[in-house]
Amino acid sequence: MLNFLRSCWRTSGKFKFGVLVLACFVGIALMAPLFYRPIIGENTPARPGLFRRWEAGSAAHPLGTDGHGRDLLTDYLAGLRTTLFIGFLAGIVGTGVGVFVGFISGYKGGTIDSVLLTITNMLIVIPSYPILVALAMVTPELGVATMALILALFSWPFSARTIRAQVMTMKERPYIELAKVSGQSDFAIIFTEILPNLMPYLLMGFAFSTVGAMVAEVGIEAIGLGPSNIITLGLMINFANGWAVYSMGRLEILLIPVSALVLIFMAITMINRGMEEYLNPRLQKVTTEK
Length: 290
Prior knowledge:
This protein is mainly alpha-helical.
């Protein structure tokens, strides 16, 4: 896998750009407490009333305070940290489920494949957003991990279908037949012969699952659902709309979280596109011609 990533880094400018941008955001999220702890101390970022409402930017509050008496810089840093955590956790769980379903479906075939493929197609066809909204309405005090797990339940079908298609192609290759003849178990064949060759596709599935989970999280939080005691970028968008920042002349309160989300989605998309172009040289040729 490391050789694949190195090759993508050397050959694809899109991949390199996406990795650098995403690494910046991840680095900021990891170091967020170092920036906001001197401002709020040991208080939680979501706690309201720590400061006066709508203070202007100053040395104590570089971006000012919000309508709940919280430091805006703290809001954005904590929101970025939580949103990325939810996206990555949901992506990991969703990809894990997709790998399991895709491998079993593609390798076993027959009735097992038909049943798992039907379930996968149903989840792809059924609109997940209304279901997520309904779940958020009946369970308003979700924790971060619980919310990520719920989002992961609807983010795995794409990975499962992609992996299934690749497994069905690879299991017909001569070295797989040789492994079967030599007496290796299905488990051993999957994890020693097939899985290492599918790592690039697993990374692509993880990227899609992560973006899908983050989009769903932002969509739920932006309309005022989901946990209100945890700051996310989606919740900041909801607050900005509720505070009518347009009429206040504080449009940056809305633009900062929106811009961060756009850059994150663009970075993940560029990484995914770079991997696709490396795996499929015809895509690289088309891109170059354009």
